[in-house]
Amino acid sequence: MADISPNPEFPQTLIPEIPEAPESNGQQEYSPLPADGGAWPLISFSHVSMSFGERQILDDVSFTVNRGETLCILGRSGVGKSVALRILMGFLKPQVGSIRVAGDEINAFSEEQMRVVRKKVTMVFQNGALFDSMNVRENVAFPLREHGGLAEDQIHEIVERLIKMVGAEDVSDALPASLSTGRKRAVAIARALAAQPEVVLYDEPTTMVDPIIARRLGNLIQRLKRQLGFTSIVVTHDMRFAERLADQVLFLDRGRGAYFGPLKGFLESSEPDIQQFLTLDAYQIPT
Ligand SMILES: Nc1ncnc2c1ncn2[C@@H]1O[C@H](COP(=O)(O)OP(=O)(O)O)[C@@H](O)[C@H]1O
Ligand SMILES: [Mg+2]
């Protein structure tokens, strides 16, 4: 629940020095936000269906995410949660439906156009997807260097701030291979933030790490939401985590969006499939 309203200053509060990208490269630009700051969806799926060959994975799935909100995507393993995120990143193209990001219909976007979208929507992959040959500092600096227009001392300052924010100061010279899964994910979050995204996607951020680290990552994601008003989509089957974080819930069940709406409605639902998920699956520690 957004008890603290989104901070419109972001990312300036986090990265005050960062200037606009040097020049437009002529690619399609984002539609400006409504001047009144009114809530219109930053992201929407509208009647999206996705098959791999004969196998239909998503069947007529719709949802929206407003600016500053956190959507948790819940559902059993193999139901298509990661597929939904990959569609948003433009790595997969659904056969049917419309996907909008900040006003743009992206389903027909070219790879080049998607590169622009991926500056706004970044994904924190489970394995962190860090560059193996770069240390933590260089990994976090990468999006800043790519963005261009920053002096080395500015990059240094921003990188230190981000690394501190995710609690990775003690490993800033380390190579990713030497880090635990939880640490890799924390660093991946710092790198994602360095790209100054509008939306961060997390795929199962708290699984495969021990409960203490899971809690720490959970706190971090919650803090980003509360303090910076980040818009995020979090795929998880950790229901406790979802309860702390979710404004809206999308529950995928056998390909369908079986529930989309506020967290409270999901928890109180009398739908047998949801009840079963909540009683049997959702609070188990995932293997
Ligand atoms: N690129 C792909 N090609 C074929 N099948 C895929 C592909 N990606 C995912 N799938 C299948 O789609 C289903 C949903 O996968 P996924 O979204 O990863 O599930 P989860 O909800 O656990 O994240 C799985 O059966 C998976 O095997
Ligand atoms: Mg998955």
Topology:
Elements: E1 41-52, E2 55-66, E3 70-74, H1 81-88, E4 96-101, E5 104-105, H2 111-120, E6 121-124, H3 136-147, H4 152-165, H5 181-194, E7 199-203, H6 211-228, E8 231-235, H7 239-245, E9 248-253, E10 256-262, H8 263-267, H9 272-281
Parallel strand pairs: 3-8, 3-9, 6-7, 7-8
Antiparallel strand pairs: 1-2, 1-4, 4-5, 9-10
Helix pairs in contact: 3-4, 3-5, 4-5, 5-6
The structure holds adenosine-5'-diphosphate (ADP) and magnesium ion.
How does this structure look, described?
This protein is α/β, with parallel strands linked by helices. 34% of the residues lie in helices and 22% in strands. The chain is built from 9 helices and 10 strands. The chain has a 6-stranded mixed β-sheet, sandwiched between helices. Magnesium ion (MG) binds next to helix 1.
Class of secondary structure makeup = alpha/beta
The low-confidence parts are: 1-36
Bound molecules: adenosine-5'-diphosphate, magnesium ion
How many strands in all? Answer: 10
- The number of helical segments is 9
**H/E series:** EEEHEEHEHHHEHEHEEHH
